[in-house]
Amino acid sequence: MLPRAAPAPLLIACALGIERLALRGKHRGGAGGPVTVLRTGMGPAAAGRSVTRALAGPVLRDAAVLATGFCAGLAPGMHPGDLVVAGETRDPRGSVPCVGTDLLVRELARVAPGRTVHTGPLTGSGHVVRGHERSELLATGAIAVDMESAATLLSAVRAGARPVAAVRVVVDAPEHELVRIGTVRGGISAFRVLRSVLPAYLEWHRSLLLPRR
Question: How much is the pTM?
Answer without folding.
Answer: 0.87
